[in-house]
């Protein structure tokens, strides 16, 4: 019998708190983490570097299949991302890269090309997987599935704060419009659209602190919603 590896999926739109919450949760549980959005962002950046148009699905699939990427986590689970040996951890975090990621992520064969790479993150002692389709497509058998939401205004403000803190200059009105466009593209695409799995627990994080959301998820885990080994 194969060993059961505990798995929590956290899906939701941009600014819903997924990234921060997944990272705190992975630290608290001592689990591995998959930031699947980073893979789509890296692919978009690689396409730019190799001058591949974002509508050339065939070339993007080849690029995705051979993507030379490394996630290097230190013992505090801070992750640096290397693309072809270069540190792109900051370069992939711009809104421009997020928008380009959502364009390549709408291509069905590109999504298939990245599936095995995402599933390979499921290793002992467990995994917290963060994305848009973790609970619906990549890990449909997850022990517990969380879908985070928040009002569009709050999500835009959170992203604004994050980008300003990283020293990236942005305009709140432009950012709100770009987030709305990206959400619309992610939610309306025919493959793996952004939506909660039927068995996901939906948590609205509007006006709720990060610690409160983390505690809510931990208490769901403690209620036995995480399948025992
Ligand atoms: O989460 P993040 O903002 O880094 O994701 C960037 C883009 O990658 C999203 O807007 C979405 O289009 C795409 N994505 C996806 N499926 C995932 C994770 C991200 O389509 N599991």
Structural summary, described in words:
The chain has a single domain (7-221), classed as P-loop containing nucleotide triphosphate hydrolases (Rossmann fold, 3-Layer(aba) Sandwich), CATH 3.40.50.300. It contains nine helices and eight strands. The chain has helices at residues 18-29, 36-49, 57-65, 95-104, 108-119, 134-138, 152-165, 172-188, 210-225; strands at 7-11, 32-35, 69-73, 79-83, 86-87, 127-131, 144-149, 201-204. A hairpin with a 2-residue loop joins β4 and β5. α2 packs across α4 (95-104) and α7 packs across α8. The model has no long low-confidence stretch (mean pLDDT 92). Cytidine-5'-monophosphate is lined by residues 14, 36-37, 40-41, 98, 101-102, 105, 131-134, 182, 186.
């Amino acid at each position: 019998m194969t060993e059961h590896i505990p798995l929590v999926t956290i899906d939701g739109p941009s600014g819903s708190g997924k990234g921060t919450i997944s990272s705190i949760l992975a630290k608290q549980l001592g689990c591995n983490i998959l930031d699947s959005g980073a893979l789509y962002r890296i692919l978009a950046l690689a396409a730019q570097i190799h001058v591949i148009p974002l509508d050339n699905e065939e070339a993007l699939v080849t690029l995705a299949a051979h993507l030379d990427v490394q996630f290097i986590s230190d013992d505090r689970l801070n992750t640096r991302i290397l693309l072809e040996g270069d540190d792109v951890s900051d370069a992939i975090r711009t809104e421009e890269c997020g928008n380009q990621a959502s364009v390549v992520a709408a291509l069905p064969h590109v999504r298939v090309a990245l599936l095995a790479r995402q599933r390979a993150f499921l290793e002992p002692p467990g995994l917290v997987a963060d994305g848009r389709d973790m609970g619906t497509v990549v890990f449909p058998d997850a022990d517990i599935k969380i879908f985070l939401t928040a009002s569009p205004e709050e999500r835009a403000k959170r992203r604004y704060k994050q980008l300003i803190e990283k020293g990236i200059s942005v305009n709140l009105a432009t950012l709100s419009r770009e987030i709305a466009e990206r959400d619309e593209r992610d939610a309306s695409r025919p493959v793996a659209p952004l939506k909660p799995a039927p068995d996901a627990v939906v948590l609205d994080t509007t006006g709720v602190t990060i610690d409160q959301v983390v505690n809510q998820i931990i208490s769901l885990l403690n209620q036995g919603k995480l399948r025992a080994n």
